Amino acid sequence: MKQILKIERFYVKPPVNTTEFLNELDWYRRSEAPVQAYLTDWNLSGNEFFQDFIGQLYVLYPKYQVEDLWVAAYKQGDYAETHDHSGFDWSFVWYLDTCCDCPPLIFPNVKRPWLPPRVVAPKVGDLHIFPGKYHHYVPPHTCEHERIVVSGNLATYDGINS
Fold it and tell me: What is the structure's pLDDT at 150?
């Protein structure tokens, strides 16, 4: 029995000045985080660089607002442990820099771990949106270049915050 997961895929063209912008960010390694890669602050949603992207998210998901938005840069050996984003309606990953040999995003079958997982291959510009309760991970990065993704969470818009 194949695992049925609701993972939506869209294409959002990355901005031309992505490398320049990324070089201006502060990067951290957080030992307590499930993502063992270089990470930015958790809330970059107010950053001018992401306003077009966030606007597109609101067109796709008008009843939700961005609660968290960060960037992760995976170098060789970096990975993401199995985790979820419980407490959020939706989570997303947007690929800014990747190649077909970069490790995929994997959704294991938690109820039936002997069955094959859902594997989402990375592709520049792809935006994948999935329920925050889905467990997922990224195997160790093996490419020589960085695998750069924007990740975040969406929550039901309560009409109070704008």
Answer: 98
Q: What is the mean pLDDT of residues 122-151?
A: 97
Q: pTM, whole model, 2 decimals?
A: 0.93
The type of residue at 94 is: W
- CA–CA separation, 92 vs 61, rounded Å? 12
Q: Distances in Å between the alpha carbon of 53 and those of 92, 109, 134? A: 12, 30, 23
Structure tokens at 7: 């993972």
pLDDT digits (tens, 9 = 90+) for 33-43: 999 999 999 99
- Which one of 2.60.40.1120, 2.120.10.30, 3.20.20.70, 2.60.120.620 gives the CATH number of domain 8-156? 2.60.120.620
- Residue spans of the domains in the chain: they are 8-156
Q: Which amino acid is at 40?
A: T
Q: What is the pLDDT of residues 97-112, one digit of tens each?
A: 999 999 999 999 999 9
Cβ proximity of 18 and 97 under 8 Å = yes
Give the SS3 label for residue 53: helix
